[in-house]
Amino acid sequence: MTPTSHAIVLLAKLFSGYTVRWIDCQPDTCQRIYFANHTSHLDAVVLWSALPRELRKITRPVAAKDYWSSGWLKPHIAKAFNALLVDRKEIKVHKSPIDSMLQQMGDVYSLIMFPEGGRSSADDEMGEFKSGLFYMAKKRPDLELVPVYIDNVNRILPRGEVLPVPLLSCITIGPPIFLEAGEPKMEFLTRARRSVQCLKER
Length: 202
Prior knowledge:
By secondary structure, this protein is α/β, with parallel strands linked by helices.
């Protein structure tokens, strides 16, 4: 972990004041995909920072290349938390983002993903999950798919704002799910989305 990485963890804790709850799930170094609701550009930073140190070393947040590559500060931050940057604008048929992500995971890294693609609406209503999580699960059925609900981070850095406002937030990490044999894509995505929503009430 670099000095910048440590600084990011400290600042994330300072501004988000997060608490972490593990429900029917424990920190583990096995390969996982942590998939969460998406309400703020800070989601990836806060969730990554909230993981125990030994997990942060082997966990890479998936982030939008167009956002995290702009300016001078964001690329530096993205490098510090080892973000896996995905190009949302120039997707090529012969170079699938899913295949690229799996290749960069290898047999070592876990990922943090936000299956909605974009951020949730202003009223915190989760969007429908896009198909990426399904194809990841189909190609790597050994991966634990761990649902995460992030609460209140959107109010730390509201849309259109540049500077974060210190608040308290909560991260709830739930029991892993897996793609069941023969499970249709839409049924799986609905079940995965529901597994995140259910954590809001727990």
